[in-house]
From TrEMBL:
Entry GO terms, CC: cytosol
Residue numbers binding substrate: N17, Q49, N69, G79, N80, N165, N198, E216, R217, G226, S227
Protein family: Belongs to the diaminopimelate epimerase family.
Record bears the keyword Isomerase: yes
Subcellular location: Cytoplasm
GO molecular function: diaminopimelate epimerase activity
Name the record gives this protein: Diaminopimelate epimerase
Keywords of the record: Amino-acid biosynthesis, Cytoplasm, Isomerase, Lysine biosynthesis
Superkingdom in the source lineage: Bacteria
Free-text function comment from the UniProt entry: Catalyzes the stereoinversion of LL-2,6-diaminopimelate (L,L-DAP) to meso-diaminopimelate (meso-DAP), a precursor of L-lysine and an essential component of the bacterial peptidoglycan.
Catalysis: reaction(s): (2S,6S)-2,6-diaminopimelate = meso-2,6-diaminopimelate
């Protein structure tokens, strides 16, 4: 029987981003892609991201987190999921700060209120090998999505950045005027992104307000994506569309993002516990 069977988990959301947190700090089990897909497909444990807490690897950190998308692939960063992990690890304690680790590095979390947390998402990376891109953008229109007339691409010239995971942000007047379910997978799998990418449609409404709709790599349309909110803010600030701090409004709620002068990006927002449950052993028989 899988060591995950009957294991307790927390079903949460961060600004509507569906998150499952599971505590494997006392287990050596590493969740397989098939197990992640089985959990995502089960009633009561559907997620956009599964945050598996493992024993810490680095002194001073609380846990090493493996992050799984719905399709079983792994991600380096998940801002909304990290806030949910911070809730699990601090709820019922008097602690308000903790350090966690993901494949992308160390993340400092802070409790701001009963269900509100900030995460230091680290430094953005803009180098094409870091994002990664297949090659350097020599032409800002290197990515064009051609659905309509040949001389009128529907989307082009995104900002590209790594926030521990790859992001492309397309600037539009109204994100919701586009068919993201159709264009998201085409752009996620564009050959310019060797590791695929998270695809955002962003509209700057004011120097401190961005509207954002995200197609997540490996998960599809989500109600919120914390790392995409960070990607949008740093890209907007870098191109003088906004200042260095803004509210980013997503379908599931608002996140506040600040790009500090020390180059770190701080993302703040809500967490919500929906229920705690136990994995059904039958799930893992099917996945094996
Ligand atoms: N929802 C997350 C980001 C999820 C990871 C992404 N799908 C990837 O594969 O990079 C967030 O809140 O940051």
């Amino acid at each position: 029987m899988s060591p995950l069977a009957n294991h307790p988990f927390w079903k949460m959301n961060g600004a509507g981003n569906e998150i499952v947190v599971v505590d494997l700090r006392r287990s050596s089990h590493v969740i397989s892609a098939a197990e992640a897909r089985a959990i995502a497909g089960a009633e009561g444990s559907h997620f956009d991201q599964l945050m598996a807490m493992h024993a810490p690897r680095t002194p001073g950190t609380e846990t090493f987190i493996r992050i799984y998308n719905t399709d079983g692939s792994e991600a380096g960063a998940c801002g909304n999921g990290t806030r949910c992990v911070a809730w699990v690890l601090t709820e019922g304690t008097d602690r308000d700060r903790l350090l966690v680790e993901t494949k992308a590095g160390l993340l400092a979390c802070r409790r701001l209120g009963p269900a509100s947390f900030s995460v230091d998402m680290g430094e953005p990376k803009f180098g094409w090998q870091d994002i990664p891109l297949a090659e350097e953008f020599r032409d800002t229109r290197a990515i064009e999505l051609q659905i309509g007339p040949i001389d009128a691409p529907v989307l082009h010239s995104p900002s590209v950045v790594s926030m521990g995971n790859p992001h492309a942000v397309f600037w539009v007047d109204d994100p919701y005027a586009h068919d993201l379910a159709k264009i998201g997978p085409m752009l996620e799998n564009h050959p310019i992104f060797p590791d695929r990418a998270n695809i955002s449609l962003a509209a700057v409404k004011a120097p401190d307000h961005i509207i954002l709709w995200v197609w997540e790599r490996g998960a599809g349309i989500t109600r919120a994506c914390g790392s995409a909110a960070c990607a949008a803010l740093v890209s907007a600030a870098r191109t003088k569309r906004t200042g260095r701090s803004a509210t980013v409004s997503l379908p599931g709620g608002d996140l506040v993002v600040e790009w500090r002068d020390d180059n770190h990006v701080i993302m703040s927002g809500p967490t919500e516990l929906e229920h705690a449950g136990e994995f059904d052993p039958a799930l893992f028989q099917a996945a094996a």
